[in-house]
Write a structure and sequence with these properties.
Strands 3-8-7-6-4-5 form a six-stranded mixed β-sheet. A two-stranded antiparallel sheet has the order 1-2. Helices cover about 40% and strands about 20% of the residues. The longest helix is centred in the first third of the chain and has 16 residues. By secondary structure, the chain is of the alpha/beta class. It is globular and about 40 Å long. It is built from seven helices and eight strands, in the order ββαβαββαβαβααβα. Strand 1 and strand 2 form a beta hairpin.
Length: about 190
């Protein structure tokens, strides 16, 4: 445990040093180094529209029009929709619900390398969870900027969050079926 001594003579836990040590350990465990960890723009793939349609269908059923689908080996392994109002839980975003549903029945390590499709670019909370799960690729429909014209948003992109993670490279693809995702806001 990292400790430091302050002027009062007491020994205190040093969170920054501990986090730096953990990040270094995670980087070593994943084979990444800060120089190679980053958000990587990824081109649209042939399967992206098919899986994004699933995320948008989930969004249509949510309290707010946000939905997600997690895909491994070309199969949907979990879905989620915004349930913040229903569950009285402001953290119940589509991505978080999909992750929670997956880990309820599977080891979290099985999310490593998966692709998460989401109707809206992940907020910082969701992108942080995506990074901590080791999800290797994020595909979103509407961007934070587009969404901010419809409702309040924290103006931090998924790319900015991924760039701050020195232990993982996340591929990011944006704009897949954005008009369809944005049209859901007109129906709510």
């Amino acid at each position: 445990m990292s400790r430091k001594t302050c002027g009062c003579g007491a020994d205190h836990f040093d969170r920054r040093a501990a986090l730096a040590t953990m990040a270094g350990g995670l980087a070593a465990a994943t084979g990444a180094s800060p120089a190679q960890a980053h958000a990587k723009r990824s081109p649209v793939r042939p399967e992206d529209e098919k899986f994004m349609q699933i995320a948008i269908a989930e969004a249509a059923k949510g309290d707010f029009p946000f939905g997600a689908a997690i895909v491994r080996e070309d199969k949907v392994v979990s879905t989620g929709r915004n349930l913040g109002v229903t569950n009285h839980d402001p953290t119940a975003h589509g991505e978080m619900v999909a992750i929670r549903r997956f880990v309820a029945d599977n080891p979290a390590k099985e999310l490593k390398g998966a692709t998460l499709y989401t109707s809206g670019e992940p907020c910082p909370m969701c992108m942080g969870a995506i990074v901590w799960c080791g999800i290797g690729r994020v595909v979103y429909a509407a961007s934070i900027e587009q969404l901010s014209k419809r409702l309040g948003q924290i103006m931090i992109t998924s790319r900015a969050v991924a760039e701050a993670a020195p232990f993982l490279t996340v591929e990011i693809t944006g704009g897949v079926l954005a008009p369809e995702a944005l049209a859901l806001f007109d129906k709510k």
